[in-house]
Write a sequence for this structure.
C-alpha cells in the first residue's frame, strides 16, 4: 500500500544580525500541491544531500533536482517535494547565510507519519544551512499500553471474533434447510410416510442425524477460538462459550424444520434462507447491540430483543457479544464486572436456546399433524373451492357409476371408493391468500383466479380389479392419486380406503403402496447386499429416524428380507444390488419404485405411470409382474397408453380436463367410441375383390369399407 505525502517547503533568506527560525505547519492539503507516494509501508525514501553551507538555495535546488530525477526513474520510491518553479538566478546568494530563516511546511495528514516527517525535513534544511555536518534524526517510539487499553483492545477483538463466529454459524442451517425441502419436493418424504414411516419417527430421526452433523462444526469453531487465543472466550468464559455453541447446534435444527414449511423449492430455500439467517443472526444482533449503548433507544430495544430471541441465531450471537464486554458492562443492560454466567450476559440466552430445542421440535410435529387436517387449511383460508356446484353433462356410464355410489354408499365394501373428489387450486400465491384472509377479512376469490384440477369424481374399485386412468398430461390423473395417497387434501368430497376416510392419513397409509410419477429415490443409496432399497427405508431410516419402529406394515425383519430377495429376483435387479440408484437407467428406476410400492403386501396399490421410460421388453416384463401380483389387491394405474390399459386394466376411466368423461371396460369403450378395426393386407390383386365380398357378406356391406386398394396393398375398415 502506498502512503501519500504532500510537502511544500518555503525558505526565505533575509540579511540580518539575529538568526531566527519560524515554522508554519498547515494541516490541510492544497489542490495545487503535487501528491506523490511516500514509499512502501509508509517508509519515506531517504535522499542524502551535501549542500554548500554558504548557499542554502543551492542546497534546496539540488535536492529538488535529485528527487525529481529519482521520481522519473523510480516513481515507486520517491517521497516527493514540491518546489515553486524558479531558476537559480532568482535567488543568488554567494557568501553570507541569512540572519532570519522562515520555513513553511504543509503536509497531508492522511499519511500516518506525514507531520513528523515534514517537521524533520524542514528542521534539517534549517540546521544544515548553518552547519552542514549537523542533522536531526527522528524516531517513532509508541508509548506502552496501559492495562485499561490492553483490556479494551481484548474486548474489541472479542466482539470482532464473536461477530465472525456468528457470520459462520449462519451457514450451518442452510444445508439442513436444503435437504428437508428437497425431500419434500422430490416426494422422498411422502414415499417414506406412505410406506409406513411414522411422522414422529421421521422428524426424530432427522433431528438426531442433523444434530450429529452440526455439532462437529460447532466444536471446530471452539477449537479455532482456542487456537487464536481469544482472551475474552478463555478461562472463566470458556464454559458459557462452549455451551453456547452446543446449544446453538441443538436449537437451530428444529427451528430450521419449522422454517422449512415456508418453501416449496429446495434451490430457492437455500438462497433465501441464507440471506435470512445472515440478517437475523448477524445484522440484527449488531444493530440491537449498538442500540444498547444509546440511552434513548435502550427501553424500546428490550422489546425488540425479546422478539428477536425467538431465533436461536440471534440468541447465540448476543451471547458472544455480551461475553466480550462483560467487564465494561452497559448501563441499564449489563452491570459492570459481571461474571460470564450472569443472567444478563449469557444465562438468559442459554436458557432461551434450551427452550428453543424442545419448543420448536414440538412445533414441527404440530405442523406435520395439522397439515393433514382440512379444517386447519379452511381456518387459514387456504382450502380453496368454487362457490357454485360444478354442473357438467356426464356420460351415461359415468352418471350410472355416480348414482350407484350415491345410493349404496353405506353398503359398499370396495377397498377404494371416491365420493365427489375435487381439487381446486388458486392462481394466487399462499401469501396473497393469507393477506386477503387475515388483513382484508375477505374470503371471496374470483372464479377466474381458480383452477379446477379434479372435478367431482365418483367411482369405486373392488378387490382384484385394476382400474386404469387414461389421459394426457394435465388431465388430473396424478392429482387424484396424490389426494388418495395423502399428499394433497381435497377441496371437496372425500374418498375411503377400506372404509377409512382419507382424512385419517395415519391409518390409510398402512394400507397403501404408492409408486409416484417421478422416482422418489435417493440417488446416492445402494441396494445394500443384497437388500433392496426398501432396506434404506426400513432399516437405515427407521433406526436413524426413530430407533423404535422395527416393523413396517406389520412385517418383521425376516419377512422384509424374504420379500426383498423375492422382489429383486422377480424384477431382474440382481446385478444392480450394489450400485447407487442414481446410476440406474430410467427403466430400472421405475422397477425400483414399483417394488417399493409392493413392500409389505399392501391391499391397495397406486401406480402412477409405472412403465414410463421402459423399453418394450422391460415394459412387457413389468406388465407380467403387475398382472401376477394384483389378484388380491385393488389397484389404480395411470397411463398414457391404451395398449397398457388393455393389457392390465379391468376397467378404464378416461379423464379430460379433470373430469371423468368415459368409464367402462376396454371392449365397452371400443364399442361405444371406436371406429372398428382397420386391416392392412398384402394380397394379390386378383383376389382382392373376392376377399372384400366375403367380409361384406360376413359383417354387412355397410360395415366393411375399402379405404385403399393399390397394387398388392389393401386397407379395409
Amino acid at each position: 500500500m502506498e502512503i501519500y505525502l504532500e510537502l511544500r517547503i518555503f525558505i526565505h533568506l533575509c540579511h540580518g544580525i539575529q538568526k531566527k527560525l519560524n515554522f508554519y505547519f498547515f494541516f490541510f492539503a492544497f489542490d495545487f500541491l503535487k501528491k506523490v507516494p511516500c514509499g512502501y509501508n509508509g517508509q519515506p525514501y531517504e535522499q542524502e544531500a551535501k549542500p554548500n553551507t554558504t548557499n542554502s538555495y543551492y542546497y534546496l535546488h539540488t535536492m529538488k533536482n535529485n528527487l525529481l530525477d529519482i521520481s522519473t526513474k523510480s516513481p515507486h520510491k520517491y517521497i516527493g517535494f514540491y518546489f515553486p518553479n524558479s531558476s537559480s538566478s532568482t535567488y543568488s546568494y554567494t557568501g553570507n547565510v541569512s540572519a532570519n530563516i522562515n520555513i513553511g511546511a504543509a503536509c497531508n495528514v492522511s499519511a500516518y507519519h506525514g507531520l513528523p516527517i515534514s517537521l524533520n525535513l524542514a528542521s534539517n534544511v534549517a540546521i544544515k544551512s548553518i552547519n552542514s555536518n549537523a542533522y536531526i534524526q527522528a524516531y517513532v517510539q509508541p508509548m506502552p499500553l496501559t492495562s485499561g487499553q490492553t483490556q479494551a483492545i481484548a474486548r474489541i477483538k472479542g466482539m470482532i471474533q464473536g461477530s465472525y463466529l456468528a457470520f459462520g454459524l449462519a451457514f450451518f442451517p442452510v444445508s439442513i434447510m436444503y435437504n428437508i425441502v428437497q425431500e419434500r419436493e422430490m416426494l422422498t418424504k411422502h414415499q417414506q410416510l406412505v410406506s409406513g414411516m411414522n411422522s414422529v419417527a421421521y422428524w426424530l430421526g432427522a433431528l438426531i442425524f442433523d444434530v450429529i452433523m452440526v455439532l462437529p462444526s460447532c466444536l471446530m469453531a471452539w477449537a479455532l477460538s482456542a487456537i487464536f487465543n481469544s482472551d475474552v472466550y478463555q478461562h472463566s468464559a470458556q464454559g458459557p462459550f462452549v455451551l453456547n455453541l452446543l446449544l446453538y447446534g441443538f436449537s437451530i435444527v428444529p427451528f430450521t424444520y419449522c422454517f422449512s414449511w415456508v418453501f416449496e423449492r429446495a434451490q430457492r430455500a437455500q438462497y433465501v434462507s441464507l440471506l435470512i439467517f445472515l440478517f437475523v443472526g448477524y445484522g440484527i444482533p449488531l444493530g440491537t447491540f449498538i442500540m444498547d449503548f444509546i440511552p434513548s433507544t435502550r427501553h424500546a430495544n428490550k422489546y425488540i430483543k425479546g422478539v428477536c430471541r425467538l431465533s436461536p441465531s440471534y440468541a447465540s450471537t448476543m451471547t458472544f457479544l455480551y461475553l466480550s464486554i462483560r467487564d465494561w458492562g452497559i448501563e441499564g443492560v449489563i452491570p459492570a464486572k459481571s461474571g460470564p454466567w450472569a443472567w444478563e450476559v449469557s444465562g438468559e440466552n442459554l436458557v432461551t436456546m434450551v427452550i428453543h430445542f424442545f419448543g420448536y421440535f414440538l412445533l414441527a410435529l404440530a405442523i406435520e399433524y395439522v397439515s393433514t387436517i382440512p379444517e386447519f387449511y379452511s381456518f387459514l383460508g387456504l382450502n380453496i373451492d368454487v362457490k357454485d356446484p360444478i354442473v357438467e353433462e356426464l356420460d351415461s356410464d359415468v352418471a350410472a357409476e355416480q348414482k350407484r355410489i350415491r345410493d349404496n354408499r353405506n353398503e359398499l365394501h370396495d377397498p377404494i371408493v371416491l365420493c365427489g373428489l375435487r381439487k381446486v387450486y388458486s392462481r394466487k400465491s399462499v401469501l396473497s391468500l393469507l393477506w386477503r384472509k387475515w388483513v382484508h377479512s375477505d374470503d371471496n376469490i374470483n372464479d377466474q383466479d381458480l383452477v379446477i384440477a379434479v372435478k367431482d369424481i365418483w367411482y369405486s374399485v373392488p378387490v382384484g380389479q385394476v382400474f386404469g386412468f387414461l389421459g394426457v398430461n394435465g388431465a388430473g390423473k396424478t392429482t387424484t392419486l396424490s389426494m388418495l395417497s395423502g399428499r394433497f387434501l381435497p377441496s371437496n368430497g372425500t374418498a375411503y380406503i377400506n372404509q377409512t376416510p382419507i382424512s385419517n392419513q395415519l391409518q390409510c397409509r398402512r394400507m397403501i403402496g404408492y409408486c409416484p410419477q417421478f422416482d422418489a429415490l435417493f440417488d446416492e443409496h445402494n441396494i445394500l447386499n443384497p437388500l433392496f432399497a426398501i432396506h434404506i427405508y426400513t432399516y437405515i431410516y427407521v433406526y436413524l429416524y426413530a430407533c423404535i419402529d422395527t416393523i413396517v406394515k406389520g412385517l418383521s425383519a425376516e419377512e422384509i428380507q424374504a420379500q426383498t430377495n423375492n422382489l429383486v429376483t422377480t424384477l431382474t435387479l440382481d446385478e444392480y444390488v450394489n450400485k447407487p440408484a442414481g446410476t440406474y437407467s430410467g427403466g430400472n428406476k421405475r422397477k425400483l419404485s414399483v417394488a417399493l410400492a409392493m413392500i409389505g403386501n399392501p391391499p391397495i396399490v397406486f401406480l402412477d405411470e409405472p412403465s414410463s421410460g421402459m423399453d418394450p421388453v422391460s415394459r412387457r416384463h413389468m406388465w407380467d409382474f403387475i398382472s401376477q401380483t394384483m389378484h388380491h389387491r385393488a389397484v389404480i394405474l395411470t397411463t398414457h397408453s391404451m395398449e397398457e390399459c388393455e393389457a392390465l386394466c379391468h376397467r378404464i376411466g378416461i379423464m379430460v380436463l379433470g373430469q371423468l368423461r368415459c368409464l367402462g371396460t376396454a371392449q365397452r369403450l371400443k364399442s361405444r367410441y371406436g371406429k372398428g378395426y382397420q386391416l392392412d393386407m398384402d394380397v394379390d390383386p386378383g383376389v382382392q375383390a373376392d376377399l372384400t365380398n366375403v367380409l361384406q357378406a360376413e359383417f354387412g356391406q355397410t360395415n366393411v369399407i375399402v379405404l385403399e386398394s393399390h397394387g398388392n396393398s389393401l386397407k379395409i375398415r
Notes: The longest strand covers residues 450-461. The two ends are 91 Å apart (CA to CA).
